Amino acid sequence: MEFQTDLEDGKYMIAVKGRDASGNESGDKPLQLNFEVVSKNSIKNIYNYPNPFSTQTQFVYTLTGNVPNKMVLQIFTLTGKVVKEIALSDLELPRLGNNLTQFTWDGRDDYGSLLANGTYLFRIVAYDSNNSSYSGKATKNDFGKLVIIR
Question: Residue 122 CB: number of other CB atoms within 10 A?
């Protein structure tokens, strides 16, 4: 059995039907899986869970293109001040596709102080081997919103 691995960007569907050594089929219908190939380096579908949170939250994102050398999670106040930076790539290995971080954030800033209740912004920035950012200039779609309620 061969699979084409150099697919162009686009949406695809694969159908699989199996048979055991005696010739018994795996079912009446093949298993169908829809997937999308995206070769452009990007981070999208960024959110945290749970949101709002009181004691801890995790981050979810979709990574496309190539696996970055470095990934940094930045958390900002609504005025744009960075209150926390976490080097995700030092804590876990990112992979292409959907990711749920193993890292849980407890709502503390870089100095270890609990942040006040309220709304904060966050983004994940990825860097390639040339230390160039995947996202370049940030747009509103590059940011997620999180809410702390204690």
Answer: 22
